[in-house]
TrEMBL record:
Protein's name in the database: Anti-anti-sigma factor
CDD domains, sorted: STAS_anti-anti-sigma_factors (cd07043)
Start and end residues of each stretch annotated as Disordered: 110-146
Limits of the STAS domain: 4-96
GO molecular function, one term: anti-sigma factor antagonist activity
SUPFAM superfamilies in UniProt: SpoIIaa-like (SSF52091)
Source organism per UniProt: Blastococcus mobilis
Gene3D superfamilies registered for this protein in UniProt: STAS domain
Source superkingdom: Bacteria
């Protein structure tokens, strides 16, 4: 089982929270704890780097969405950077795209599915890739009650 780690990197105007490993039901309390510690530093913005958080389930995403909502209510911001395509897809499947800000834009605007099928003018359309679903661990988002 991959180990979970979280680190706080404070700066004058923002705090970066780096999440590494699986973010799931067993680690959601740790995610909530590190996000709470980041909020206590009272910066205007908190950046959550998820580039090395390779697996998410709904409990981890809901912890992040709840934290984002609380910061927003206090006039502060939470920005998520480094989200892998699988993380972005799960955010969409969990109907959290309107609540999370990915790489500086709302997740709904950053959804790679929104641009699927587009290509530069005059360029041939790319060949369709295999439609086999990517291997997943755990149940789909709908089955998890996201």
């Amino acid at each position: 089982m991959p180990q979970f780690n979280a680190a706080l990197v404070p700066a004058p105007d923002q705090v970066v929270v780096r999440l590494v490993g699986d973010t799931d039901l067993s680690t959601a309390p740790q995610v909530t704890d590190v996000l709470t510690r980041a909020a206590e530093l009272n910066t205007r913005q908190i950046v959550v780097d998820v580039a090395r958080a390779h697996f998410w389930d709904c409990s981890g995403l809901h912890a992040l969405a709840g934290f984002t909502r609380e910061l927003s209510a206090a006039g502060r911001a939470c920005r998520i950077v480094g989200a892998l395509p699988a993380t972005r897809r799960l955010i969409g499947m969990a109907n959290l795209a309107g609540r999370l800000q990915l790489d500086g834009v709302p997740a709904a605007a950053a959804d790679p599915a929104a641009t699927r099928g587009t290509h530069p003018a005059g360029a041939p359309a790319p060949r369709a890739a295999s439609r086999r679903p990517a291997p997943t661990r755990g149940a789909p988002a709908a089955a998890l009650g996201c």
